[in-house]
User: Fold these one by one.
Assistant:
Number 1:
Amino acid sequence: MDTEIEPGEKWWGGAVQLGAAMPFGTETALDIDLMAETYGNPAVPMLLSSHGRWLHSGAPFHLKVAGGGVSANGPGTGIKAGAGEPATLRSAFLACRDRFFPPSGRAPADVFFTAPQWNTWIELQYNQNERDILAYARAIVDNGFQPGILTIDDTWQFGYGTWEFDPRRFHDPRGMCSALHGLGFKVMLWACPFVSADSPAYRELERTGGLVAGDDGSPATVRWWNGKSALLDFTHPNATRWFEAQLGRLAAEFGVDGFKLDAGDLCYWDGANRRRHLAPVRLHSPGALPQDAARAYGAVGLRLKMCEYRTTWGHRGEPIALRLADKRHSWDDLARLIPDMAAMGLAGYQFVCPDMVGGGNFVSFLPGAEDFDQELFVRSAQVHALSPMMQFSAAPWRVLDSSHLAAVKAAAGLRSRFARRFAALAHDCAASGEPMLRNLEYAFPRLGYADIRDQFMMGDFLLVAPQTRKGAASRTAAIPPGRWLCDDGGTVRGPAEISLQTPLDRIPFFERLP
């Protein structure tokens, strides 16, 4: 389906990780296949226009923006087009919501929004162990930070598919979880849909069914970031039963509260993707498509008390907490947080976490790393602080001096001030289907804000204008129509453009006044 871009019209959609390239306009040149490449976050075959127009498909499509036009073509469910009223970005979103992803009315657990999250990845990497996890948790509290969700990352387990605490590293996992609860944390464990070849789990699933198969019927081998493994086929009923039994056992036996379910990428179930598969593969259910397996994997999280995904297929309007794909420790990637989060919301996923404070690249946080930048870490924390979620991994007290640490603690403290309102907003958005975090074009349509990528709205009550440029001590901010109470106590009436001072410890924000 080919659509000509109207004068002044802007478009959003396709893949969340293209947020920084949005909006697409007459000068955009883009050509991607949303089946072959999703960039680590959801790819949604939906496009929304600032003039209220929309394109939508039930299957991944080939997206091309060039020559002043938008082209969306592909097999599977037909591509549909329409327009919302009035002719705005928000009306286009709401029209698609009503037709394709009505809200469930359910939100993730409040703790996702009311307290910072903590992840052991950067501090421990592939050496997750009981002693250091407890030391990390105690240091969080001892350094004056609020406990929240604590996620124990990859290698807590004995092996991929062997979802048991590794006894070489965990001597009393039940006692560890109890101690973490006593410190005020909820405990989540990392997990994935891969199964190491020749493990007991592999042999069981090979016998009973539940692994993606090759043409000869034996389990296929899939490449992923940690090597080559078998892959659960969630179109096979045994795969879901087996996987949920593993998670349920961990919750019952050790008191685990939830799970970080990684690797929901379409490409792993796509047998035509030669970068991932060593040979052709097939799914169990007749006529099943990669998106069917990814959707079924995502549905596992809906049946858990607490869950985080990085990517999934479907489940828009559902209570899934989604994290932006790993960002580098760089100013360029810091600048991508806001537009990528806005793109996640416009894709229909309301509950977004902006990766980890400072980025998820652990190499930048190793002792003596030449590219580590304390100012960048602070500014990243400030973007997180007033976003839907805030997640730490690198320990601030380890990587920062006293002045930068104080600024990060101030940002976390500011979040506490808005905690109840953010949780209430999450429930409101669960009912309405609208995103928690919104770009200015969505909130204040057709007023010239479409290209603003460094400000955002939380709901309709909080305008945030963080500093995202290295060494900058000031910035300009667009103030939309209405009366606004500034963080410095002043009152501003919009529309206006104002200059703001941004010392290291300031996050400029504006609360809407009646």
Note: The CA atoms of residues 439 and 456 lie 5 Å apart.
Number 2:
Amino acid sequence: MVNVDGRNTSIELLAPAKDRTCGETAVNAGADAVYMGAPRFGARRNAANSVADVAAMVEYAHRYQSRVYVTVNTVLLEPELEEAVALLGQLHEVGVDAAIVQDLGLLEVDLPPIPLIASTQTHAHNLEKVQFLEAAGFSRVILARELSVAEIAHIRAHTTIELEAFVHGALCVCYSGQCYLSHAVGGRSANRGECAQPCRKRYSLVDGRGKVHSSGHLLSVKDLNRIHRLGDLLDAGVTSFKIEGRLKDEAYVANTVTAYRRALDACLDARGEPRCSDRISYAFTPDLDVTFHRGYVEGFAHGEEKMAGLDAPKAMGVPVGVVLGREGNTVEVDAAEPLSPGDGLCFFATDGNLTGTCVQSVVGKTIVVNDAADMTPGTELHRNYSTEFHRAVKKGVQRRVPIRMRLDAVADGLLLTVEDSVGNRGTASWSGPFEAPRNREQARDRWKTQLEKTGATEFVCEEVELGHVETPFVPVAVMNDLRRRGLDALRQARLQSIATLTEGRRTETPCLPEVLDSTYNVTNSKSEQLHRRFGAKQIARGPEAGGPIDGSRVMISRYCLRRELGSCLLGPPGKSLPAELYLVAADGKEKLRLHFDCEACKMHVIRDR
């Protein structure tokens, strides 16, 4: 990538890819890069892809000068290091542009020259941690989601490493890489790609005497949406704008990427900075409320806000109407939005639980659903699946690279020059002898017609210029061959000019504490070796490698239940809550103690057993 004063100036919209289909959709919708899972060692185990599929994704993305990053972002146990190294070698061979990793042991082994991105699982939550990751040799760091715009700007002012920030999608209630709750209660480690999401369960907040002060999905936070903060993040120095969602479907990818592509381009235009120049068309209007979300927050972008989705941990969609009455599964609805067969509806049943059903038919205000047992008059309905929107999305999004062609006369022949909008150029020539055309105008028209036929390629020809040339008569096959070779030459030139990540450089300046607890997630000898290089002398092994969970603390969160419930000890007077507080799971199987570190503005969740 282009660098100015050591800093990257190429802005990237980064999209998730559960598989090749989602990845190609993301590229078509305007993503500058996609990230997808490797066959193993990804933090989303259910989003793994074969090396062959990754290779096909690379080939497709590179046509549009988009990049492909692959996640190898779990901690690694000692026997797994060799396999991980071999896997990264395979990924390098198929042309992957970077690997996203968590285990710092990978910086101590012999890897091919593949750029490494520090996963959000590395807990890059402050300047000191980012400086360490830069010194360790990473090319880019994915910042903790909890960082404010001001904190990101502070990090930018004191580092030169590329900064990647999440702008949309699901939020973990805990700092990424610092959550051991799933591992502690069920043996499924988030740092191993197996999180069971116990944070999305229902809990009661109780005091030491067992009195209930609140109940609901107390640890389930809403989803991130920073589409209106892109300009602030640009100004703060963010290089890559990341959409979460490696388990999401194609409609989610198409919708979010299209929305953010338009918003980011508008910000870049306003600043006079380069933006996506490709021509993108789609058969739907992007609407972030339509596809999966749990309600939206901006996180800690500019301070505190209510973040919890206390009522439900699932996607409710948008309000569409109120039940007027029902008979069996036939329901009369005062609909604010038109409904269609196949739509998914959700609502809160009389027991307070979120439930759902599917629309079978629609006639005016009357709908027939699969199950209307809990649809009492006055029930508010939400649509969490829109048949019409998904139908429009399935028509696809299309991305074409605009090009110009020029045909000139050269010694003993013709020269075709093909150029894209950012200056990449390819040429092809054809030698004579040629016959003079019987009708010059017809000959020129035929040349233009044939040259601009780019067909099913990634290119769209916006202009054909016939320079100082007497357009000769040649068979159509000759014109087509000249065009094909010109496009191939341009394609190769574009492949050679794909922006690459800045090479990471290790400095090995001691910058770590001498004593590291288990939250540093050291699970193998190579990781321990690297941490010792940077000043650590006493290193606890991570829980996945058999070490104890530090202080039985299974979660560290910037999200705070006291603040959420209006009882912040540092804020204005509000709801009174006792000092001793616990979370009790709805099934009664877990009781978690809460500790509030008000000086650091963090909440700790502790499992005392």
Note: The first helix runs from residue 20 to 28.
Number 3:
Amino acid sequence: MQTLALFQERSGLRHYLRDHYGDHTFEHLYRWNWFDASLLIPYFVVLVCLAFYGMHRYQLVWLYYRHKKKATKEPPRHFEQLPRVTIQLPIYNEQFVIDRLIEACSHLDYPRDLLEIQLLDDSTDETQEVARAICDRYRAEGLPIVYIHRTNRHGYKAGALDEGLKVAKGEFVAIFDADFVPPPEWVMQVIHHFAEPEIGMVQTRWTHLNRDYSFLTQVEAILLDGHFVLEHGGRSRSGVFFNFNGTAGMWRRNVIDEAGGWQHDTLTEDTDLSYRAQLIGWKFKYLQHVTCPAELPIEMTAFKTQQARWAKGLIQTSKKVLPHVFRSNVDLHTKIEAWYHLTSNLSYPLMIVLSVLLMPALIIRFYQGWFQMMLIDFPLFMASTFSISSFYLVSQKELFPGRWYKTFLYLPFLMSLGIGLTITNTKAVLEALFGIQSAFKRTPKYRVQKKGEKTTAARKYRKRLGIVPWIELAIGCYFFMTIWYAWVNANYFTIPFLLLFVIGYWYTGFLSLFQGRFERWRSGANFEESSPKPFPVGV
């Protein structure tokens, strides 16, 4: 109520003072009080914290280019005799993509007598019958594949991988999630890097099967490209810790055991194990030129589920491993980089605080002219927001030098999407900070690649987010009112920034609520006919 009263009072007072006394006298007539300070101090503290995380993105770009000559290409040596490799395929209710995954594994260019494929199935639906039938079929054709089904999901994905390791025969273990399609040459491109005895894990870059499916998947692809090009590239080239991404990578089997095995007390068991392995001295490699395509989430609810799981898991991992990192004898640069990497999702609750304080801060600072905005706010906004756009522009320039400039069209929406995720990701981060446990929520895979392609899998596996989309729409309305206030008070500088908030919250909210309804309306009576079918049982 006090903020509302200030809004009503100062909106009129602002014009009166400037009209009758001029700008200079107007500024001296205004005096801060304790209420103003109690809002503006945390407002600027939050902006400074976000600016530090933003500046870190610039540092990753700098590391990427500074150490460009250290990029890993061909292995320095080769095995004289190829070792045995186990391929682990952890799945959970993946009936629409499982046949594609196993078919891709059947074409891997590696001696079959040195290859073992484990289908680790925790499914609770008809995927069990589908997967067992596919394994039987390919095993009859000579593929060394075994089907392992658990009657419980203890430990979720980490538990399934650990169960498979108990009977695995390979010296090296590669892992692919259900939505990945490893190319035939993948194992041979990776395995010889382990001829260096100090290498414990090799990660390859994800590409995207359905990048052009929709506007959402285009933005998702750019977000992931930034991670795999500049984050992994900058960290690996400069010799600091980076993480296995849970799939499209290969481990030396004994490294997993030495580091304490797969543990399921965090939702990012891959990052947890990665840090534990590097802390005991093992080296990791990242192969940017070796790629493995995968399917991007096509629905906003699925994308939110994925991002929330990653956000919560990284904070859980930071609480678990950062104390060990800081007590270790690794160099200071590695420790600082580990902090930024594992705590980056703290920016989401900071964004919530910023969202709450933005309107009161505008009201309190109604006297402020463009010079003060340029001197104080502009550098902070440049550090915290422009760093995002430049970060992803550089990643696209590295991957697509001939058409990277098209990324400019996606940048406002890319930043808006990041803002729109703040509600679900803040909830996930707070759960991690307060030790609230939750189940491993997998990302639904629908097996769609081309624009306009439809699937019945969405109706089967679509998730709802309860009241969250309505909260997002309400916050979007709040920022729309903030834009109106900024316009009325001639504070035009802030309007583009505020528009990002409106677009982000409305976009994520509306898609979460109505994307499924829109798909059903668009597909109409042909929905069932054009949808992919799971592999027939018994074939």
Note: The chain has a mean pLDDT of 85.
